[in-house]
């Protein structure tokens, strides 16, 4: 939950969404970006982050995804669903192009099985139905136009048009040449007027050429005449064009009827393309802002390392400037960070950076921070930023701030992140300071987290001794009198009011007068803060360098440990394999020696035979010498081919292999098709498959879906018979993804109607039921709508 709602706009999240939409290539993707919102479910956030990170890795390190065309096929599928409608050539081609993208992307990930598991989950249960492409390819060519031979009649009409056009052209060419010889023709060549080929004739010669005058030039000196001899041929061509258009509409209507059963699958493909475009846009935006995937935590805490405000980065990049990184952490020991320091020193930017990056991460976006950064999950983010005065509500700036403070103190909890800019300002500091301190104490008592900016000294003093709150300051270069925009945790910061006033040229006399008007104690505190800041800057630089060296050493140690473990494991494996091989060789040698001795005894130590046996023994022993490079061969795995029956290892379900694509199998579970991994299945013998399974598995999903009728007639049946038939029909309707169907049960006494409706109420898939229109059967027909 974000409060108030305009905090998303003030923190810049709306601008982030607008930037992401610029990377979308479809209106569907842009619509999904608009719906992107702050989430608090760990699994959902983790899934979105990993999908974006995997797509980013593809863009940066792999071959580009074969994304060619994205079209709104949901709109086209909804149009095709309506009986009697037909899709135009362009609309059919948009479906075709989109499906080519779908299948190309699925193949891309199939070739890289296991590399991008979170992106593979987008289409894990997506059916692959290439019959849709076959239906379209039979009618539409590669340019998206109807093929001339899409039907026999269309082929005949096309040939007739071509022949008639040739005759008309030949005839008009003859007449045109004759007119040229007689000097009747005006300057120019044959031209088209109102879809007809005409000859430009000088106005004074228009009576010399018989024909129909279609037009004349603006000056009236030239008329455009269609010769009489060509007129009938052109009329014939026009009639043939009408016949061709009617035949094309008939072909498109028939094609749309063939595609209608696939509407549920087309909607699934639409959803896949939309998600793909959405994730792609997020990944491209992540690359632009140099974002990384942080470590996602279930608890409420955060640690940002080298974090940058993404919008500030984009703005600075355009003008060639860099952004100073932010390092900040909030955990159980430091839940609230109170940031002070000079005006224009970066306090507000630091606070907005924390808020915006937290919202981005919990919306599934990568953030511009080091990958070692940690992001916890907050249930609520409360923000008080800027001036919210309202003339309509009669609220002043301070009243608006107090209204928010009231809400914060009443609703904040240990899972809330509070962001407040310029805490306590807007009224007399004498009274605003104590009120702000009371609010801060209340927020702290509720164990909330937060980042708050202020200039009030009493808040700095309270944060210094309050458990759970820590001071922070924006480092200021008091030598050159300019801000460094670096946040330092652990101490409050000075406002540097006098130093900044001196830099901008305020009179030294005026500055001294101002200093004399503040208390001695306050002056000492401010001077002490300035000196502390100068000293701690040197310590901070040394600490950063030390941390860098420590991380480098830790990385080298970890790498050495991995290499040592790898070599130790290799050594153990080599020794084990060598021992096994030596034992086998010794065993074989012993057997060979025993056989040799036995044969010598049988031959009674015949000298010739003994020599031959000794030579054979020596030869066999040399063959079996131990060679370190040899390894026992693994038993060949049984190969799976198209037509084999397999068993799912996790469900024990039987299916038949239809296609094989590298490590993926396209299998049929009865009338359903799906994609499974080879490693998740086991080949079974044909004999072990029950006959009933084989019979059911031979039917085609698409054929059955195409012949499935969206209505069932139960008139005249007894109650039990009707319910049994309805149950079988209902299962198939759900399986094929139909959104509605109608049941014809007749009126009578209404007994069968009541029985059917009571039965269907038990199914959670049923959305609603209603009577047919009175003119089409009324309460004798029930319309059933599925979720």
From TrEMBL:
Q: Does the keyword Nucleotide-binding apply?
A: yes
The EC number on file is 3.1.-.-, 3.6.4.-
Q: Where is the Smr domain?
A: 712-787
Coiled coil start-end: 529-606
Q: Which superkingdom? A: Bacteria
Binding of ATP occurs at: 341-348
Example of a GO biological process term: rescue of stalled ribosome
Record keywords: ATP-binding, Coiled coil, DNA-binding, Endonuclease, Hydrolase, Nuclease, Nucleotide-binding, RNA-binding, rRNA-binding
**First-level EC class:** hydrolase
GO MF annotation list? ATP binding; ATP hydrolysis activity; ATP-dependent DNA damage sensor activity; endonuclease activity; mismatched DNA binding; ribosomal large subunit binding; rRNA binding
Database matches in Gene3D superfamilies: 3.30.1370.110, P-loop containing nucleotide triphosphate hydrolases (3.40.50.300)
InterPro entries recorded: DNA_mismatch_repair_MutS_C (IPR000432), DNA_mismatch_repair_MutS_core (IPR007696), DNA_mismatch_repair_MutS_sf (IPR036187), MutS (IPR045076), MutS2 (IPR005747), P-loop_NTPase (IPR027417), Smr_dom (IPR002625), Smr_dom_sf (IPR036063)
Which Pfam family is one of this chain's hits? Smr
What does the protein in this record do?
Endonuclease that is involved in the suppression of homologous recombination and thus may have a key role in the control of bacterial genetic diversity. Acts as a ribosome collision sensor, splitting the ribosome into its 2 subunits. Detects stalled/collided 70S ribosomes which it binds and splits by an ATP-hydrolysis driven conformational change. Acts upstream of the ribosome quality control system (RQC), a ribosome-associated complex that mediates the extraction of incompletely synthesized nascent chains from stalled ribosomes and their subsequent degradation. Probably generates substrates for RQC.
Subunit text? Homodimer. Binds to stalled ribosomes, contacting rRNA.
The record's family statement is:
Belongs to the DNA mismatch repair MutS family. MutS2 subfamily.
The molecule here is called Endonuclease MutS2
């Amino acid at each position: 939950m974000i409060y108030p709602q305009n905090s998303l706009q003030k923190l810049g999240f709306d601008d982030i969404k607008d930037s992401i939409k610029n990377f979308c290539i479809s209106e569907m993707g842009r619509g999904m970006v608009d719906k992107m919102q702050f989430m608090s479910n760990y699994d959902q956030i983790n899934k979105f982050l990993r999908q974006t990170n995997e797509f980013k890795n593809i863009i940066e390190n792999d071959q580009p995804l074969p994304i060619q065309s994205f079209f709104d096929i949901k709109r086209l599928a909804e149009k095709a669903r309506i009986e009697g409608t037909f899709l135009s050539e362009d609309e059919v081609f948009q479906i075709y192009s989109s499906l080519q993208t779908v299948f190309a992307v699925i193949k891309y990930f199939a070739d890289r099985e296991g590399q991008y598991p979170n992106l593979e989950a987008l289409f894990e249960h997506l059916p692959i139905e290439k019959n849709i492409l076959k239906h379209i390819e039979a009618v539409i060519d590669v340019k998206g136009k109807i093929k001339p031979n899409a039907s026999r009649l269309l082929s005949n009409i096309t040939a007739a048009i071509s022949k008639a056009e040739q005759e008309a052209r030949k005839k008009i060419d003859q007449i045109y040449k004759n007119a040229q010889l007689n000097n009747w023709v005006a300057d120019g060549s044959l031209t088209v007027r109102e879809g007809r080929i005409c000859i430009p004739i000088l106005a004074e010669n228009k009576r010399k050429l018989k024909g129909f005058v279609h037009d004349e030039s603006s000056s009236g000196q030239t008329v455009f005449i269609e010769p009489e001899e060509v007129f009938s041929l052109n009329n014939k061509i026009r009639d043939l064009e009408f016949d061709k258009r009617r035949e094309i509409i008939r072909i498109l209507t028939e094609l749309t009827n063939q595609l209608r059963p696939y509407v549920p699958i087309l909607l699934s493909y639409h959803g896949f393309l939309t998600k793909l475009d959405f994730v792609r846009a997020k990944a491209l935006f992540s690359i632009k802002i140099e974002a990384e995937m942080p470590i996602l935590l279930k608890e409420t805490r955060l640690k940002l390392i080298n974090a940058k405000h993404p919008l500030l980065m984009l703005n600075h990049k355009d003008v060639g400037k860099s952004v100073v990184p932010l390092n900040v952490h909030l955990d159980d020991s430091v839940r609230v960070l109170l940031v002070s320091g000079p005006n224009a020193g970066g306090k507000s930017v630091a606070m907005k950076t924390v808020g915006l990056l937290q919202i981005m991460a919990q919306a599934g976006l990568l953030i511009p921070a080091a990958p070692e950064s940690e992001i916890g999950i907050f249930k609520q983010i409360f923000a008080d930023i800027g001036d919210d005065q309202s003339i309509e509500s009669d609220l002043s700036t301070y009243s608006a701030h107090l209204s928010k403070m009231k809400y914060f103190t009443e609703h904040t909890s240990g899972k809330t992140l509070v962001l407040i800019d310029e805490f306590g300002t807007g009224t007399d500091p004498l009274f605003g300071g104590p009120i702000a301190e009371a609010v801060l104490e209340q927020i702290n008592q509720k164990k909330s987290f937060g980042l708050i900016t202020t200039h009030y000294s009493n808040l700095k003093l309270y944060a210094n001794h309050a458990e759970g709150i820590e001071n922070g300051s924006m480092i200021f270069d008091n030598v050159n009198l300019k801000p460094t925009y670096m946040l330092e945790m652990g101490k409050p910061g000075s406002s540097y009011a006098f130093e900044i006033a001196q830099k901008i040229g305020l009179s030294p006399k005026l500055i001294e007068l101002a200093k004399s008007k503040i208390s001695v104690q306050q002056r000492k505190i401010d001077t002490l803060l300035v000196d502390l800041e100068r000293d701690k800057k040197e310590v901070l630089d040394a600490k950063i360098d030390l941390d860098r060296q420590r991380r480098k050493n830790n990385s080298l140690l970890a790498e050495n440990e991995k290499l040592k473990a790898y070599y130790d494991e290799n050594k153990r494996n080599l020794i084990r394999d060598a021992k096994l091989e030596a034992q086998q060789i010794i065993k074989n040698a012993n057997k060979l020696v025993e056989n040799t001795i036995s044969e010598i005894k049988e031959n009674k130590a015949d000298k010739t035979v003994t020599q031959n046996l000794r030579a054979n023994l020596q030869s066999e022993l040399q063959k079996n010498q131990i060679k370190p490079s040899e390894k026992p061969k693994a038993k060949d795995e049984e190969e799976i081919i198209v037509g084999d029956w397999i068993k799912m290892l996790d469900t024990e379900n039987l299916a038949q292999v239809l296609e094989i694509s590298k490590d993926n199998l396209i299998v049929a579970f009865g009338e359903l098709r799906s994609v499974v991994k080879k490693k998740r299945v086991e080949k079974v013998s044909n004999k072990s498959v029950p006959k009933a399974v084989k019979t059911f598995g031979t039917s085609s999903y698409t054929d059955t879906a195409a012949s499935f009728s969206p209505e069932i007639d139960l008139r005249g049946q007894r109650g039990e018979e009707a319910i049994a038939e309805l149950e079988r029909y209902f299962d198939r309707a759900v399986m094929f993804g139909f959104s509605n169907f109608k049941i014809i049960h007749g009126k009578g006494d209404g007994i069968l109607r009541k029985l059917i409706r009571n039965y269907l109420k038990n199914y959670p898939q049923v959305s609603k039921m209603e009577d047919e229109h009175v003119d089409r059967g009324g309460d004798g027909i029930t319309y059933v709508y599925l979720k």
